[in-house]
Write a structure and sequence with these properties.
This protein has one domain. The chain has seven helices and no strands. The protein is globular.
Length: 124
């Protein structure tokens, strides 16, 4: 019995260490990891937008009010990696439904919820 317990603990430890936390889209090895990287980026954006309004962003930078989040989004890197990995937009949207679901509670303010809406709209 003791050996089974030790074996079980070692198995759990191996699985917990082997799961990669991806936050850089260029490091994603498959479509699932790309969605995980997208979630990490979305979390950073939600933190940045926390409770802010578009008016506040416009007051801070009238010419480019969304500049604070544009550089965080890394759109081109995500698009390039999706093409390399062969990830279709529909496939990514479906995976995002389950991965991004908990982000809705983290969205504070209308601007943050508006940012998140397109990611969750296909989850119906």
């Amino acid at each position: 019995m003791r050996y089974r317990t030790i074996f079980f603990i070692l198995i759990l430890f191996a699985f917990s260490c082997s799961s990669r936390s991806i936050s850089d889209p260029t490091q994603a090895k498959d479509c699932t990891e790309l969605v995980e990287a997208g979630k990490a980026v979305a979390e950073r954006i939600l933190e940045r937008l926390d409770g802010q309004t578009l008016e506040e962003l416009e007051a801070a930078n009238p010419d480019e009010p969304l500049a604070p989040i544009d550089y965080l989004m890394r759109v081109e890197e995500f698009e390039n990696q999706a093409a390399v990995l062969g990830c279709g937009k529909d496939q990514l949207r479906l995976q995002a439904c389950s991965v991004y679901a908990d982000l809705e509670v983290k969205a504070s303010g209308d601007l943050a919820r508006d940012f998140l809406a397109p990611y969750l709209e296909s989850c119906g």
